[in-house]
Fold this sequence. Notes:
Layout: H1 2-63, E1 65-70, E2 73-78, H2 84-101, H3 107-127, H4 140-149, H5 151-170, H6 197-200, H7 202-210
Antiparallel strand pairs: 1-2
Amino acid sequence: MTMRIEILVAVISLGGVVVGSGLTLLGNFIQNRQEKNAQIHKLITEKRVQAYEDILAITKYGALAVGVWENNQFIKYPGIFTDASQYDDWYANFALIAARSSHFIDQHLSYKIYLFNNYLVNLNNRLDNFRDDQKQFRDNRKAQLFGALLYEDFRKLTSDILNAATNFYASGIYTDKFVPAKLEDNTDLPPDFMQLALFSKLPEMREILMGE
């Protein structure tokens, strides 16, 4: 009888050790998993912050205005229209940053960038009318006046991007779960998109091109 009790005590003790070890292993597993998830979240957040910072910087630069005197009036235009090199450098950087950042931004910002990209594709086709065989502007002054015609377009489209990007710092940065934005190929344009000067002021564009 005494031996049975001793065996029972030994079994219970061993069971306690096994259970204790199991709980310790489980606790360590959960802790390690939480630490790993925290590290991944920290890394993704850092990448997202950098993506938003890059988008804000390149967009602000594109919206930076300068001016020219024309008929005793000071006319503002986006500084990237100063000459072809400035525009082309900015456009290449914007396209690169937008592509590089696409999987770190939310749906709202992705849509605003999509609209601006759509606009810029059409703008590049218009700018071909101002270029020579070396892809430089034949007349920087005309290109600047063309930029002035589009000044409000740039203000609106870049402001939409900047507002969408800054919303990230108000709420998105605190979200643990993040799903990269996905845009369908048939994403609709807003009703007022074709009312932008690039599409609605064709006579004024022709006047700038043909004017002396």
